[in-house]
Amino acid sequence: MKIYGIPQSRAGRCLWMARELGLEHENVPVHFRATRESPELVKVNPNARIPALEEPGGFTLHESMAINLYLAKKHGAATPLAPASLEEDALATQWSFWVMTEIEKPLLTLLMNTLGMSPATPDAVAKAEADLARPLDVLEAHLAGQDWLVGGRFTVADLNVASVLAWARGAKLDLSARPHVEAWLKRCLGRPAFKG
User: Fold this and answer.
1) For residue 57, what are the CA distances in angstroms to 38, 60, 196?
2) Distance in angstroms (rounded) separating the CA atoms of residues 15 and 22
3) Domain boundary assignment for the chain
4) pTM assigned to the model
5) How far is it, in rounded angstroms, from Cα 161 to Cα 148?
């Protein structure tokens, strides 16, 4: 199995998933600024974006959340990572879509600004912070009564959401006002497969 992309990109979440599942994989390190220069990647993902997955036998898939949901279901059936029911599958999908639509864009704005890669105006920073408030409150309320997002255990839902919220560190986003989110994220990012 090949996973295209560098760990410092959205491919990092797919590499994390492969490690959680103990899957043998090759990381083909295509930088997000050089995707069109990789004919091998373009064959796997005609959009010329990372990450992309190529399995033995020729099956290919792109979009990081789709890759992770697929890997969990295909290779994680005997593990706690995979959904154990149709309802858990739906909830894992819900949280994966939620983090992409509610959290990723404003958090990426803050991250890129903090790193100096794409400086934002003070108004854009304030808007990004304001846009994060409500979804972070939703996550805080959800985690107030449980340690994990779905099924009382660390699953693909936690991995997918935490892989985006991990950017909070680089963005210097203070999560202390949301102690359940902060503790949950620490548990997720403390996993050996993430540290790898």
Assistant:
1) 21, 9, 27
2) 10
3) 2-75, 86-195
4) 0.94
5) 11
Task: Tell me whether strands 2-4 and 26-28 are parallel, antiparallel or unpaired.
Answer: parallel
Residue 60: helix, strand or coil by DSSP? Answer: strand
Across 157-194, b (16+ Cβ under 10 Å) vs e yields: bbbbbbbbbbbbeebebebeebebbbebbeebbebeeb
CB neighbourhood size of 87 (10 A): 11
Q: What is the pLDDT of residues 129-160, one digit of tens each?
A: 999 999 999 999 999 999 999 999 999 999 99
How many C-beta atoms surround the C-beta of residue 29 within 10 A? 16
DSSP string, 111-123: HHHHTTSS---HH
Which CATH class, in words, describes the domain spanning 86-195? mainly alpha
Phi, psi of 44 (to 5 degrees): -85, -40
CATH 3.40.30.10 fits 2-75, yes or no: yes
